[in-house]
Amino acid sequence: MRIFISADIEGVTGCTVWDETEKGKLGYDIFAEQMTREVNAACEGANMVGVKEIIIKDAHDSGRNIDHSKLPRNTKLVRGWSGGLFSMIQEFDETFDALIFIGYHSAASTDTNPLSHTMTLSLDYIKINGVVASEFLIHSYIAAYLGVPVVFLSGDKGLCSEAKTLNNNIETVAVKEGRGNSTINIHPQLALDLIKEGVKNALKVDRSNCIIELPKEFDIEMRYKEHKDAYRASFYPGIKRIDENTIKFKSEDYMEVLQMMNYLI
């Protein structure tokens, strides 16, 4: 079995303010370490059921947060950013048996994590077919496009609830809950134990039940915080500017959607 893990930091237990997510700032080292530990717990759970290879994308900020020396030997770590369409799951393809998300967070414009955002801080929101889109949703649709099951998610409680509405068979572990500009967090070691057990269980069951249904067409709405960004984006082919800060894009091909996002976000 060959699996893919995408990891972020804003959804690991304890991480609460932006300084804790930025290399070189107060608190960052603590949560980069916890990000590494939560990824390692996922790897340990996977290895308990005989996974042969694990590819991990460090998908936070510069892509240089995870300490590879603290992960199992059957892992490969993708660091930095290629600029390709798959972004936070770079190197993912149809040959994988499962996709796992660790440390993910709620979408921009939601109130379930003080660090909620989607891909960038320059957007108020992204909507796909009228639904506010998280980074989890955007990348899960890539898995759906390729026919690979999304089996596990850890992160904040709001995002875990979103995952269940997408496919109730996805195993989730909520390690934190947002309340205003605060977080309520489970103990770091408990998070590791739950992630390890959750990944093990997710990979033992019939993974075909975790394949997400891909919409037949895509109506994308993106609202920028700055009107100048919407103006610039309006020159991309197929974009319609619907007000000073908001653009729309429609396509029946999700790869076209990803290409648009790659250039406009």
Q: What does this protein structure show overall?
A:
- The chain has two domains: 185 residues, Dipeptide transport protein (Rossmann fold, 3-Layer(aba) Sandwich); 47 residues, no CATH class.
- 29% of the residues lie in helices and 26% in strands.
- The chain contains six helices and twelve strands.
- The strands form two sheets. A seven-stranded mixed sheet has the order 3-2-1-4-7-8-9, sandwiched between helices. It has a five-stranded antiparallel sheet with strand order 6-5-10-12-11.
- Helix 1 links the parallel strand 1 and strand 2.
- Helix 1 runs parallel beside helix 4.
- The longest helix is centred in the N-terminal third of the chain and has 20 residues.
Helix content: 25-40%
Q: Give the H and E element order.
A: EHEEEEEHEHEEHEHEEH
Per CATH, the class of the largest domain reads Alpha Beta
Net shape: globular
Briefly, what is this?
With 265 residues, this protein is an alpha/beta fold. 29% of the residues lie in helices and 26% in strands.
List the defining traits of the structure above.
12 strands; 29% helix; 5-stranded antiparallel beta sheet; 2 domains; 265 residues; globular; Rossmann fold; alpha/beta
List the helices and strands and how they pair.
Layout: E1 2-7, H1 28-47, E2 53-58, E3 75-78, E4 98-104, E5 123-128, E6 131-132, H2 135-146, E7 150-156, H3 157-166, E8 171-179, E9 182-185, H4 188-204, E10 218-224, H5 227-233, E11 240-243, E12 246-251, H6 254-264
Parallel strand pairs: 1-2, 1-4, 2-3, 4-7, 7-8
Antiparallel strand pairs: 5-6, 5-10, 8-9, 10-12, 11-12
Helix pairs in contact: 1-4
